[in-house]
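Budget justification aside, the reviewers requested a transparent look at the raw inputs and outputs of the sequence design task funded under Objective 1. We therefore reproduce one unedited record. The lines immediately below are the structure tokens for a 137-residue chain.
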């Protein structure tokens, strides 16, 4: 039987979603002033940053073995280098939080956000294409 160990990410995400829901309801029923209510997406951004910090904290706190010595081989086996790439989910949470914050402050509309998204996706595809063509040479 496979055992799954909880990392606590679900608890953090669940707590963040509950907080966002409560704040949205408080703003909707005018319990919290509207000016304060505009800043609720900062909680989502903070949740994404907390996920990033947690990821890198765990990554950097693990000890990495220097080499694995195999008696049958004359050469030591070195483990794969760590990937310091950020987790995609945390980046998506931060991006959604930034969009919601800019939208609540009336700095950006959905059309502008989609245009920026297309530009970023196009730049990512172009950079991947250029890297792939440079590797072939």
């Amino acid at each position: 039987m496979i055992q799954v160990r909880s990392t606590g990410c679900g608890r953090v995400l669940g707590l963040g979603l509950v907080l966002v829901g409560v704040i949205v309801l408080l703003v909707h029923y005018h319990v919290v002033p509207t000016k304060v209510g505009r800043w609720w997406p900062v909680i989502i951004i903070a949740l994404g940053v907390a996920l990033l910090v947690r990821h890198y904290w765990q990554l950097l706190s693990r000890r990495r073995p220097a080499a694995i010595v195999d008696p049958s081989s004359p050469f030591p086996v070195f483990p794969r280098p760590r990937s310091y790439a950020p987790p995609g989910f945390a980046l998506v949470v931060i991006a959604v939080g930034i969009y919601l914050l800019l939208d609540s402050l009336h700095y950006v509309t959905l059309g502008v956000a989609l245009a920026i998204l297309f530009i970023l996706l196009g730049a990512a595809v172009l950079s991947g294409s250029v890297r792939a063509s440079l590797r072939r040479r």
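Residues 131 and 137 are 10 Å apart (CA to CA). DSSP finds five helices and no strands in the chain. Computational costs for records of this kind are itemized in the attached budget.
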